[in-house]
Design a protein that fits this description.
The chain has 476 residues and is of the alpha/beta class. Helix content is 47%, strand content 16%. It folds into 3 domains: 2-188, Heat Shock Protein 90 (2-Layer Sandwich), CATH 3.30.565.10; 199-349, Rossmann fold (3-Layer(aba) Sandwich); 355-475, Arc Repressor Mutant, subunit A. It has helices at 2-15, 28-38, 40-45, 65-81, 113-118, 127-130, 142-152, 208-217, 235-245, 257-267, 283-291, 310-318, 331-354, 367-383, 391-397, 402-413, 417-435, 441-447, 453-464, 468-475, and strands spanning 21-27, 49-54, 60-63, 88-95, 99-106, 156-162, 166-174, 186-188, 227-231, 250-254, 271-275, 301-305, 323-326.
Length: 476
């Protein structure tokens, strides 16, 4: 289902001209050899002979490897699907001065003349292949998607086939780069590693009116009250993001995932916005390390990437990312989505202090935080009535240093550990006042470890606006 949805989305974006090619000059042979090797195990499993033949060991060609690999994966998947055990599948490459031809040849069930004339139509599926594909149905978009990608490369794809004899798909791609130079849907890169966010793909700036609108929409986000760590290896985009966030946040900059992880440990930001494709450490790996570090895992992480397929989105979210935004993005949308992450955490922290029955687990966004909060509440509930119970005892019970414990609890709950203990005591008091009408206020105060009934009443009124006696009367 995920693959089918991804294929539908890819086709829709291609159809509506939302896809740009990011082409650079690469050696086509190693690129195709990698794809060939990924199908070798399948050929053994299905007892199909799989051959890789090329007339040259090096063929330099301008192409988008991310897009073009979809074409060959699609063609080879179909070849193996419709070729019976004992058959042959071949990937054959030849070239001349002007172009390169790549053929995917199989000895499968073949196509009728009518099927050949419609094979690149969207949603079309050949009649003789439907029965074979019932156990693994497709969308009928794979070949239409492949044709669109080849067309974007200013190439051509053709098919020759005969029932019972097999099929040959031939892809022709032009050499050189002149056919791309005036193409507005293509970005020319100097190398595979070059960032793809360039020129017109950079986000637009936000007008003063839009900043005022955002400021009014998020009154709790006072300028400079919260830190955002921006991790991006493209210097131009990094400075644009810096300008975008600085009216609202203290901005910390890092230029790769390794530096970003170090800054996250040192600065403990309230939000991390990171590119995915970076040297030394990717944004995906940095996100995983943040979300598996008890001192950092509460920090929301937003990933930015030009790899906008469903699979990459799912992988990013599986690593714990709180949001995933595809490039090119609208600057205002990015800023508002980041502001929402901060505001939502503020709202949850506010509910913790105001609601008697608020579930502390709602503050946890990772399993590490859930485990920590479970243990925290368990220890506080068990020990709050003991006269010697304090923050030092609580930190020892949780096997954390006092300093790191203070920072973590403050960031996670919006309270200092002392305030959290006091809040839990007051919440327990409210529960006892409601459920145990036989207990005196002084008994509840003593049981929960308050130094005096007067102090307990003062703390209770500060939280709920009424005295314990008034709370009990109102609740009853």
């Amino acid at each position: 289902m995920r693959n089918m949805i991804s294929e539908l989305l890819e086709f829709r974006k291609l159809e509506q001209n939302y896809v740009s090619l990011h082409v650079c000059e690469q050696n086509l042979i190693p690129f195709l050899k990698d794809i060939y090797l990924s199908y070798c195990e399948l050929s053994v499993q299905q007892t199909i002979t799989f051959n890789f033949n090329t007339e040259e060991d090096d063929i330099l060609l301008w192409f988008d490897s991310n897009q073009l690999q979809k074409v060959f994966y699609n063609l080879l998947s179909n070849a193996f699907k419709y070729t019976k055990p004992g058959g042959v599948v071949e990937l054959y490459i030849s070239s001349n001065d002007n172009d390169v031809k790549i053929k995917v040849i199989d000895t499968g069930i073949g196509l009728s003349a009518e099927d050949v004339s419609h094979i690149f139509d969207r949603f079309y599926q050949a009649e003789n292949g439907k029965q074979l594909s019932n156990s693994n149905p497709g969308t009928g978009l794979g070949l239409a998607l492949s044709k669109n990608i080849v067309n974007l490369h200013h190439g051509d794809i053709t098919v020759q086939s005969q029932l019972g004899y097999g099929t040959i798909f031939t892809i022709t791609l032009l050499k050189g780069r002149s056919h791309f130079e005036n193409d507005k849907s293509t970005i020319l890169l100097e190398s595979v590693e070059e960032p793809v966010i360039k020129g017109e793909s950079l986000p637009d700036s936000i007008s003063p009116e839009e900043y005022e609108e955002i400021n009014n929409a998020f009154p709790d986000l006072k300028s400079g009250s919260y830190k955002v760590l921006i991790v991006e290896d493209n210097e131009e985009l990094l400075q644009i993001l810096n300008t975008l966030f600085i009216p609202f946040y203290q901005v910390i900059l890092a230029r790769n995932g390794k530096e970003g992880l170090q800054m996250a440990n040192e600065e403990k930001p309230d939000l991390v916005v990171s590119d995915v494709m970076m040297p030394l450490m990717s944004g995906m790996e940095m996100c995983m390390k943040i979300k598996n570090n008890i001192d950092l895992c509460h920090i929301p992480v937003v990933l930015l990437t030009a790899l906008d397929s469903v699979e990459y989105n799912i992988e990013g979210l599986q690593q714990g990312a709180d949001d995933y935004i595809s490039k090119p993005f609208h600057a205002k949308v990015l800023l508002m989505r980041c502001n929402n992450l901060i505001r939502n955490r503020l709202l949850l922290k506010s509910r913790l202090t105001k609601q008697v029955d608020f579930d502390v687990q709602l503050l946890a966004s990772t399993s590490l935080d859930q485990e920590l909060l479970n243990h925290l509440v368990e220890v506080v509930d068990k020990c709050m009535g003991e006269p010697d119970f304090d923050v030092n005892v609580l930190a020892r019970e949780l096997n954390m240093g006092r300093s790191s414990f203070f920072t973590k609890i403050k960031n996670l709950t919006g309270m200092t550990p002392s305030e959290f203990i006091q809040n839990q005591r007051i919440k327990r008091a409210a529960t006892l006042l409601r459920e145990r009408p036989d207990m005196l206020v002084s008994e509840i105060s003593d049981q929960l470890g308050f130094v005096s009934t007067v102090y307990f009443s003062r703390c209770f009124k500060a939280k709920f606006g009424i005295s314990p006696a008034q709370f009990r009367k109102k609740d009853s």
